[in-house]
Amino acid sequence: MLVTSNLIEAAWAKIPELQRGQSALPSSVQTMVDHPTPKCTIVVFAPSPDSTQDALSQGGDLVPYPKFDFLCTKGCPSVSINRAALTLFTPLYDHLSRLKDELNKREGQFIITGQSLGGSIASLFTLFLLSSMDKESKCRPICITFGSPLIGNFGLQHSHWNSFFLHLVSDKDPLSTLFLPSGRSAPTSSHSQATAYKPFGTYLLCSELGCACFDDPDFIFKFLTVASSEVAGGLQVVVDYLEILRNLKYRAICKGPRLVGERLTDPFSAGIVMELKTIGIDPAKHNIDIRRMEKEASSLTRKTNKASEAKKLNDRKINMVWLERYKKKAEDGKKDYYDCFRNERFKIEAKIQWHMADLTTYWEDMVAEAERKPQKEGASFRTGWLQAGTTYRRMVEPLDIAVFYKDGGRDYINSERSQHYKLLEQWYEEAAKPPTREELDSKKQKVSVLLTEDSCFWAHVEEAILSCKSLTNANSTPELRESSWNNLVKFGEYVMEQIENYAVSPEIFLKDSCFMTWWGEYKVYIASPSNPCSLRFIQFIDFMKTGRYGVYGRSEVP
Q1: Mean pLDDT over all residues of the chain?
Q2: What is the pLDDT of residues 41-55, one digit of tens each?
Q3: pLDDT per residue over 297-348, tens digit each?
Q4: pTM for the whole thing?
Q5: Rounded CA gap, 529 and 271, in Å?
Q6: DSSP secondary structure string, 98-154?
Q7: Is the dihedral of CA 331, 333, 336, 337 positive or negative?
């Protein structure tokens, strides 16, 4: 599809067009923005010969560049970029910032392209452009480079934008194998620096026999290393990619025969060997592990055939339905959801725990995946995913809390709370906006069917019970009593704030709830405070003593 489409050829056609009108000024990089159709924009980068030589003279070192820190991940906290590419990119930064803003206002398809170091600039600009785009944007750029050398280290491989990059590389192109350990590397690049380079994106590897697509970075690096050691001529060799594209299109249309050279009983292995020989790689000569490539290809096939992420999220609705039915059954019995599970009122807890475990496994994986993304990509889930994650957290975490305290645990929030709950809550708070008066009124009307917003609410209740026990225990030290009282004041303030914002479900006020049991047993100790307390705590005491919780969420104002 790639070869027979006009997409690659259209990108290439603009490069020589720009090069022909290139300025003779030294250290210049020409940029062209072309609109072949109203819905298509092609951006081309072409460094002048002088600027290319000047950049290459800076060497092939990998250096940090703070403006690309948005690519950093938890597993890869730093990203390094090729010095030669940065020598050309950095002076253009202000110009490219304006171009980025201009493109973000346009609609349609964007193609970013360039040859050799022009391709390096195109790759960096595409990353820069992607980082500024809205996550829901339907207009994403495609970067197509020709004979572009590697530009970065391991950090680039983790970008979930890899699918937006296509790199055409001929086995006869010396520029595409710069900075590799072949003896032709730039003077200042050490062997360790050279081996630190890592490919990213999809590579269309070409030879006289044909082409093959790969996205396995280890194999691509192996191909480039082999090509680097075998390519003839110096850096002055110019590869005509237009001729390569035409030959590839002809071969794709005519489907000429390709010979493997030996018989292989496994058709899958035979296909891999055929692809390798098509691009001039002899598996035996170059010590290529066919078995490993076969396993990786099979793994990729399995991933491709799996349900889409959206479908997997949709499948989790079955688990949520079970929890909602359990909650409804508790409400029908005039019991709150938390205490029914904690006290095992019903006999279906084992089934509920199975659905909890399935949901937790899914969301732990989703949160871990989001954390592995570069900072700009993984800052938060899309709106739909974040909403689903928030509902999951508010439904499931209270049940985890119930199990924890039933087993005699203490201080759940600081000692036991799962990281994925913390991150889901953090991302929700980062995306949330303060409610307007109208939104607060709407919440008041619907509070009876809403979930308690703080998924750790019941952990606060359990800790308040423990504080009251310490407060009333004759063996407690004065220091422990004072600490317990301070904790209770904070708890009362917290509950009052939740009530004022209609952030708790009315189920917490059901007669046999853990919260009301706590109030009934300990109100005599806390309703007439002898210790200092805040105005909001006094408001909470008054709210509970006067029974206004009975009309919470109704038309009356508490």
Answers
A1: 79
A2: 999 999 988 888 888
A3: 555 444 444 446 667 777 888 889 889 988 888 888 788 889 888 887 455 5
A4: 0.59
A5: 80
A6: HHHHHHHT--SEEEEEEETHHHHHHHHHHHHHHHHS-TT-S--EEEEEESPPP-B-G
A7: negative
CB 411 within 8 A of CB 463: yes
Burial label, 38 (beta-carbon count in 10 A; 0-12, 13-18, 19+): exposed
Per the structure block, which two tokens stand in for 265? 């009983």
Q: Following DSSP, what letter does each residue of 544-557 receive, concatenated? A: HHTTGGGGTTSSS-
Tokens 């004041």 locate to 489
Measuring CA to CA, how many Å separate 464 from each of 199, 452, 454, 520, 556?
55, 18, 16, 13, 28
Written as six digits, the tokens of 48 are 């002048």
CA-angle at 368, arms to 293 and 193, nearest 5°: 55
Cβ–Cβ < 8 Å for 458, 514? yes
Q: Give the span between the Cα atoms of 280 and 231, in whole angstroms.
A: 12
- C-alpha span between 170 and 244 (Å, rounded): 8
Q: To the nearest 10°, the Cα dihedral for 102, 67, 193, 47?
A: 30
Residue 81 tokens, joined: 């970029």
Whether the predicted pLDDT of 495 surpasses 90: yes
Q: Find, among 57, 58, 52, the residue nearest to 22 by Cα.
A: 52
What Cα–Cα distance (Å) separates residue 71 from each residue in 81, 91, 217, 263, 374? 11, 21, 18, 45, 4
Q: Which amino acid is at 46?
A: A
* Backbone torsions φ then ψ of 247, nearest 5 degrees: -65, -40
d(CA 228, CA 183): 9
DSSP 34-66: EEEETTEEEEEEEE-HHHHHHHHTT-S-EEE-G
Q: Report the candidate in 382, 378, 389, 387 with the shortest Cα–Cα distance to residue 138.
A: 382
How far apart (Å, rounded) are the C-alpha atoms in residues 421 and 177? 45
The SS3 assignment for 351 reads helix
Q: Tokens representing 159?
A: 């970008």
**Structure token pair of residue 421:** 């709950």
Report the distance separating Cα 32 and Cα 30, nearest Å. Answer: 7
Residue type, 190: S
Neighbour order of strands in the sheet with 141-146? 29-37, 40-47, 109-115, 141-146, 165-170, 202-207, 210-214
| Closest to 145 measured CA to CA, from 124, 126, 167 | 167
How many residues are present in the chain?
558
**pLDDT at 534 > cutoff 90:** no
